Amino acid sequence: MSAREKTGLQALLTPEESVLLLIDHQPFQFANLNSHEPSMIVNNVTGLAKTAKVFDVPTILTTVLEDRGGYLIRGVQEVFPEQKPIDRTFINTWEDERVVDAVTATGRKKLIIAGLWTEICVAMPALQAAGEGFEVFVVTDASGGVSAEAHDMAVRRMVQAGIVPITWLAVMGEWQRDWAREETVPGLTEIQAQHGGATGVAFAWETQLLAGRTGSGA
């Protein structure tokens, strides 16, 4: 990614240019997740998946050795109930031609990745895809490693290669871009209420206040 591509309006994500790749959010991977609180990753990747669906962003689901590592977590699978994750043997997702073909078929060049673990199953495909002409973004708070150091070193390594670290709410904000785009607002409001932490609590409070004001005839 050139310096020009990293700055300016064109550096921001749009739904029309994006494709999302979710890698190995499975029980075995969560068992040794120590860089983050596991429940936070579950919350964030589920919120990210729901956001992608609201914006009709193509989303590819993958698992590794599903029979041994377990099925994709329910929160993500339920967002795309019709989609069977691509189950791999390759550690590096980008070496599985089915995954590359699925991403390439979308015709989109801004590849957003989240997965477990950051230092292996995220870094490997991110580095390879970046070398093959994709603009790669890694959702760091929907990914995690076996230790805080492992996650941090992986993010640093990817940044050195021109890959962009981003958080899931930042992805949401860049896809939405303008609250006047009303068709996606109801869906995002529900996602924030369910997965946005204090933002969801604050929204519920605001709704309560507005309902009370309407009831009083104000």
**Ends: how far apart?**
53 Å
Q: Rough shape? A: globular
CATH-assigned fold name of the largest domain: Rossmann fold
Q: Mean pLDDT score, rounded?
A: 94
User: Looking at this structure, what is the CATH superfamily of the largest domain?
Assistant: Isochorismatase-like
What is the oligomer described by this structure? single chain
Work out the count of structural domains.
Answer: 2
CATH-scheme architecture of the largest domain: 3-Layer(aba) Sandwich
Rg calc: 18 Å
Could you describe the largest sheet, including whether it forms a barrel?
Answer: 6 strands, parallel
- Give me the number of helical elements: 10
Percent of sequence in beta strands:
5-15%
Run of helices and strands: EHHEHHEHEHEHEHHH
Helix content: 40-55%
The CATH C-level name of the largest domain is Alpha Beta
Give the class from helix and strand content and strand pairing.
alpha/beta
- DSSP summary, beta strand count: 6
Domain Isochorismatase-like: 18-168
Organism: Nocardiopsis ansamitocini
Pfam family, one: Isochorismatase
GO molecular function, one term: hydrolase activity
List its salient traits.
Isochorismatase-like_sf, Hydrolase, Isochorismatase-like_dom, hydrolase activity, 48% helix, Hydrolase_YcaC-like, alpha/beta, 218 residues, Rossmann fold, six-stranded parallel β-sheet, 6 strands
Describe it for me?
It holds the Pfam family Isochorismatase. Keywords: Hydrolase. The chain has 218 residues and is of the alpha/beta class. It has 2 domains: 169 residues, Isochorismatase-like (Rossmann fold); 40 residues, no CATH class. Helix content is 48%, strand content 13%. It has 10 helices and 6 strands; from the N terminus they run βααβααβαβαβαβααα. The chain has a 6-stranded parallel sheet, sandwiched between helices. Strand 4, helix 6 and strand 5 form a beta-alpha-beta unit. Helix 2 packs parallel to helix 8, helix 2 packs antiparallel against helix 9 and helix 9 crosses helix 10. The protein is globular.
